[in-house]
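tool_log.txt
---
The assistant was asked to compare two proteins side by side. It first ran the structure predictor on the initial sequence, then on the second. Raw inputs and outputs are pasted verbatim so the downstream comparison step can read them without reformatting.
(1)
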Amino acid sequence: MGQVVMDRGAGNVAGSGPGANGHAATKIRSYAPATGELLGEVKVTSADEVKRAVERARRAQEAWGALPVEERCERVLRFRDAIVDRVDEIVDLLVRECGKPRHEALLHEVMVAADIATFFAKAAPRVLAPHEIKLHLMKHRRSFIHYKPRGVVAVISPWNYPFQLPLRDAILALLAGNAVVIKPSEVTPLIAQKAKEVWDSAGLPEDLLQIVPGFGPTGAALIEAQPDFVILTGSVATGRRVAAACGERLIPCVMELGGKAPLIACADADVERTARAIVFGGFSNSGQVCVSVERVYAHREVHDKLLDRVVELTRELRQGDPSAEFVDVGAIIFPHQIDVAEKHIADALQKGATVRAGGKRREGPGQFFEPTVIDGCNHQMTVMTEEIFGPIVPFMRVSTEEEALRLANDSHLGLNAYVFSRDRDHATRLAERVDAGSVLVNDVLTNGGTPDTPFGGIKASGFGRAMGEEGLREMCNIKHVSVERVGMGSKDPLWFPYTAQSYGWFRKGLRALFSGGGLLQRIGEIL
């Protein structure tokens, strides 16, 4: 087997010990992006420790997977209750380690995780129940589908939502009867440690949910330890490498990767709602959201009014240290994204665009970048074609909705998209033609916290689904059991020996069953 190579984050996190800036680091130091304050240290998990963690998880899974699904649901709800009981300390840590506003830490992280646990604890007994498939031809047999745990699920999670995203996948995996090993981002290691602390405090099996902090080599070691399933949320580049490593080892996986969500503003769009949606969808979590509004295609009849209102609302946003005050926009979690933002803006300006609001780093301490609106953009600019993952919203004027649709689909990414129009039926028809895993009409971002529906992308945005019934069943091996309805005796007509007489009967049966207007078609029409 070849060695797995994964990205190693840098910036507000540094290793210590030999090779402090490389993979030989033995510790991860976490700094507050809003202040630069050292928040704590976490030991890097060695490859041997990762392997032992997976082995312990596998042993713990045997007993957990044998429990009735209803009992697993009850125990996961104990975890949810522990999260709710300790909401203040979780929110405080999210605010400090991520630099995100307190409202977003509460609503987008803790509340979403609690809701996912609640929803799926109720749904799992039904979704994972065995069910019969009615066979259309082999009526002498009955077929049943069973959903069995995969075993050990490896979750490789990102830094933008370090509480909600790993727990989203972990909760579904646990309800399905699996054990979970999480490799959190090295940029936000303390949040994962807090989640593990809360899990243990609920009296749940410690080895069933484990955290293996570290850099890229730790994630590589996790895959090399041969888990039974891998879920990655991350960049397209990392997704390609992890998917290749999983493919080499025949490990099934789900890849939730980058996005470049377009927003189509139709000629009849409600200007005020659309403008507020763009500002919220573009600058929530400082734009560090895979489903952020990353490009706006505004119909010429509404473009100027919409752009002006977006600029006004953007200038009203309060940005600052969320641990000191209530703000709308916090810090940039991973400092590299500031460099990315600056390159996108420089490229756009060089090619004729105009900055209407923001456009630069904020002076003073901390990792802050001003919420930015850019006008006069086109597909020759990287800001319209490459993922930004920062607080930048580029505008492009279009003459028709068909032009907007063509440009929206002109992307290698396809995670989320948005359509705004006063005519819901018209907007829905347009949404159905957009190439994306999810399209929202007159709304933004909310599907990321809607457990009822599947979440995931197409094209280079990945494959497989999180959440929804599809996401829960992704955590299972599908097992088909076929049972005879009536005995066929010892001489089954489909078995040996083959004779000329039996061939003739089967040939006549073929014509009777499948010829135009054949027996099966007529039965189907009757039923």
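(2)
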Amino acid sequence: MSVTEGRDAAGRLDRVSLLARLRETDAWDVVVIGGGATGLGCAVDASSRGHRTLLLEAHDFAKGTSSRATKLIHGGVRYLAQGNLPLVHEALAERSRLLANAPHLVRKLRFVVPAYHWLDIPKFGAGLAFYDLMSGMHGIGRSRVLDAASTIVALPTLRPGGLRGGIAYWDAQFDDARLALALMRTHVDLGGLALNYLPVDGLVVEDGQVNGVLAHDAESGETFRIAAGVVVNATGVWADAIRRAELPQVRPLLKPSQGVHVVVDAEFLPGRDALLVPQTADGRVLFVIPWQGRVLIGTTDSPRQDLPLEPQPLAGEIDFILDAVAPYLVRPPTRADVRSVFVGLRPLIGAGDRSATRSLSREHCIEVSPGGLVTITGGKWTTYRRMAEETVDTAQSVAGLSRRPCVTAELRLHGAEAGASSDPYGSARAAVDALPGAGRPVHAGLRLTEAEVRYAARCELARGVEDVLARRHRALFLDAAGAAAAAPQVARLLAEELGKDAAWCEAEVGRFGALARQYARPEEK
């Protein structure tokens, strides 16, 4: 079967054809488990090197952690403060690459650190000047000292009393879920196969070696035994579960934590600049960021023992965020002002058998099991590409594949245009607007159009209302109540595209309504 089967000249992805290709392929060079940032990055890297690559996701692409980030592509000023200079240097280089390779999804963003004590200006100024220095050839703008008046111009709602000035510096912002979709489409463009809602149930282990996976289609129940030269476990906080499928008694690698984000109206921080709160009560930094017409505030860092698919804020986390930002704003937001709350789980490296065969690299870890399962975990969105490069280098050795070099450092992602663009569809915009319903919003107050819903079903493998309103469009994260109000119309349009009936629409609207209620101003526990 041709590598282009399953998609037409207009870029349509047909699930029936994609499943047919899965059935008809005897073996894959690389099978990647997990459709988040790391797994998608690995799939793009492997397929761009010419390896036959399959990616399987149990739910939807970026359903978990990878759609719940703080929306920053950055070197990490807090890692600088911790003295983790190698990570900062690597992340700054990757920031530059993402700005070049996905200009439709990643853009420069200026941050301002307010100073309420005279010593803050030289302290913050020196640290951010060093941040500039570490950027080197990858710099995107110099930091500068602002006087009090200029700081208020940048952050109009900042509390003026006692303000001495501020320090402005540059990093970058992105749409995490849309970048994940761009990676999925890039992988497909390169000849790879990606399927969501196709969970892996187990590993194929023969003579002590991991030679494939067992999986099933969540929609039809059809089962698959899939042969692979190498299996890459890129399942984020669930990586230990896949490792135990091979070795039930293996010691865990991860100690997950969670980060909570609160979204409020733009009136709380109008303008284009972001506010960085330099130190919270627990010693972290807090970001207050303009994002898609709202303001995003976050995040927390709380240990989590369980791994729910839809994590909720722990007791005190929402109030912690609101209390941390309150001293900096003339009118701080309250619980009543919250439009949406979302929570992401972080796969932090914190345990494991140090005698195992693995390569530790800064904030991520690559492990090769006795049976050849390659696990990649840890890290962050900014460095996903570098993590994928190291992982595929390892996978090639494990599987005895041709040692082909990585080419992703300069690989422009699906939809990238020459020059910067604020349109998340990039060069695909013309194809989107050629569909019925272009320019017609699905609900008042949302930018999502009927054509974009149809495009999500036809070209981005959206299979339900949540897929559209949480990840193809970010309505659930921006305004949970507004997203719930739009759900019936989105369900109707998806039903037309996917051949579903009224009962399916009713069930989808009910499921999404229950989810939206979890995002809309959750009560303190």
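---
observation on (2): The radius of gyration is 23 Å. Residues 1-5, 352-362 have pLDDT under 50 and may be disordered.
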